[in-house]
Amino acid sequence: MKEISSSFKAMLEESAPHSLIISGRCSIHRAPERLHKCTERSQYKPETISIGPFHHQDQSLKAREILKLSYANSLLIRTANRKLKKEEEGAKFFHTELDSSGALVTNKEWFAVLGECISSVTNMETKIRQCYSEPIAMDSREFVKMMVIDGLFIIELLVKVKVSEQHGIAREHRDPICRNNWLLSGVIQDLILLENQLPMFVLECLFKIVAPADESLKMLALHLFDKILHLLPAGKTLDLEQSKSAAHLLDLLGMLLQTQPRNEEKEIPRDPESLQSEAPSSSLSWIRLRRTPDSVDEKETKCSYFPSEYIPSASELQRAGVTFKKGSKEVSFMDVKFGMDGIFEMSPIHIHDDSELIFRNLIACEQSYSTRDNVTSYAVLMDSLIDSAEDVKILRKQGIIIVHNLGCDEDVAKIFNKLRFHTGAADNYSKLNKEVMKYYRQSWHRWQASLKREYFGNPWTIVSLLAAVLLILLTIVSTVSGILQVVYNE
């Protein structure tokens, strides 16, 4: 018994450094294997560049390590030059044309800036390791070096993307990434993968060393998300207080997209520890059921696993008298409302080649760490509304879905239909769903819609109907006139 007790105690002591992992406080996870199996190609593993420890040893990504070193060196040189010349702090931060070939810096200043970065990261090493969902098998030297290089690379990329968007400097100076749209797109895709993240506090710490005090890392990230991903509402601003809790870049993106559905009660924030206790008790909880049942009753029976009421597809709702309307582009695409007049108002969303990857990683982030479930809820809602290309066409014609670089409506339908697999239930739109179903179940709305569709669908039908009504009226008048004539003669 004593030996077992000693062994148990030793195991606890060994696991102590990773107690945050056990408690659910870590913020960077590997996507669950069940999610990897849902896609033809992995939407969770980097294909261009690795960030952080999970894919650091991937040999297929090693060739691009030189790009990270080049970007990190460029940022270090500019920082050292700025501090050496004691110029106004903001003067040279965005002058990315000053690279190593035109540098004024000496080894002393360069090493001083790099040494400050290394020292700061070293002091946070234990805290950084605890952000990852599994122990990192790297010695301290390699781990810190990786964090510094990857962190400086991300900061320099954010700077160069902003500069190239505003002034085209990167193209003029033949920047290896920003001048190549294909490579830039691949790098940005990899930056928003759940498994390819650095803790935000690492980026913030390095940013304070290399950037002027009046610059904001998160504002640079906002610019990247706004100009490249086309997901943010028009004129989106950064809530600095809210963004303080962002765990990494992907989590920051989720915060920027966050909205409170206008017809929902305000969600009470959940403690991270509660996520594990709310995990599904059965694998059935993760399965999205067939979405085209034969009747409303069948819908209710088949969807009894879900906390929110199931709603029909867009085409079914339209046949029942529901009218889809484009909402404001000034709010998140997840801002949805339904009125008892049958108006289903949805803010526009841009769909492009990267949409599935972005949605999948945001959902994986929500289900593994975040206390939010906005994107998961939206994906479930869109999966309900979109059953086929016909449903996409309805939403696209109303300007709700804006398609970029995709082949057809069927491709858009597949994106949302594939998101449903192994997606946990979420009920941010439960009140909206109930209101939709209340309207849908009223037969009068269906009859009214059928009447409009059959008899008022086009001008010729209306003319024919009016002619028929006029003919009936003339017949009635003629008949009544004849009867009155007979009565008068008698």
From TrEMBL:
Region (Disordered): 262-282
The keyword Transmembrane appears for this protein: yes
Pfam family, one: DUF247
Keyword set, alphabetical order: Membrane, Transmembrane, Transmembrane helix
Keyword Membrane: yes
Transmembrane feature ranges: 462-488
Xref: InterPro entries: DUF247_pln
Ranges of biased composition (kind: Basic and acidic residues): 262-273
Taxonomic placement: Eukaryota, Viridiplantae, Streptophyta, Embryophyta, Tracheophyta
Originating species: Papaver nudicaule (Iceland poppy)
UniProt name for this protein: Uncharacterized protein
